[in-house]
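for the writeup, i need someone to sanity check this before i put it in the appendix. the sequnce is what the collaborator sent (i think, or maybe the updated version? ugh). structure was predicted straight from it, no edits. if anything looks off just tell me and ill rerun, i have time this weekend
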Amino acid sequence: MEDRGRELAGFLRSRRARITPDQAGLPPDGRVRRVPGLRRDEAARLAGVSTEYYTRLEQGRAGNPSPEVLEALATALRLDPSEREHLTDLLGRPKTSRRAAGSVQRVRPGLRLMLHTLDHVPAFVIGRRTDVLASNRLAREVLTDFEALPGPQRNLARYYLLNPEARERVIGWETIAAETVAMLRLEAGRFPNDRRLADLIGELTVRSPEFSTWWNDHRVLRRTHGSKSYHHPIAGELHFSYESFAAPGDADQTLCVYNVEPGSPTAEALRLLTSWTAGVT
């Protein structure tokens, strides 16, 4: 993965580049503008710090900024919650309570039971690096059968970006794939020394034509809820409202549930799909 200082510099530059002086409420100063968005001195002024200190922040030479400075910087650059989290990871003190990035993640039996209890909608558990740790039968039908894949291949980013089936099955593939790259960016900030994550990013860089463009825009995202649509070869178009929850007892595992409106065409299609695949495990 990238050097932490370069990652921080790229993130801050990309965030200030998207804000115009007009949007920030800054008056015209008559200077020729050679960069998009805010200059360093303008970002510094909005955050209430000196230009010299802000420059050291962008260069990763400012030590550990106080929570007040982090908050002022996040406000000045109009960071959303995912971006604030990423900035804290890049600039803040290490979180010693966080589990080692290389440790093996295991899904509790109770959580697996919950997945199978939710047998009327797709549901699955995502871990670090977007690894798919467990899934129920409908999730394997609607997306792909992750549990039939070798362990290292059970990964959402690999599926969306490298599996040709995903481009056919995921409606709005480009948006979903780009969002998944943003999820990996957030992970990279949290776990800068995760060798398996670095290997995954390297693989995607080499094998996915789109990955580098999305990676280099420094977007970060933590999925909480939203909508997704798929085209299933048997059931046709399926539309879901998904909810994501941190698993109790392990904040690095996320339970994802694809909900459907009762009585909707998707609900009926899932009922027929369940009957069609009855007996398949």
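The longest strand covers residues 236-247. The radius of gyration is 21 Å.
thx in advance!!
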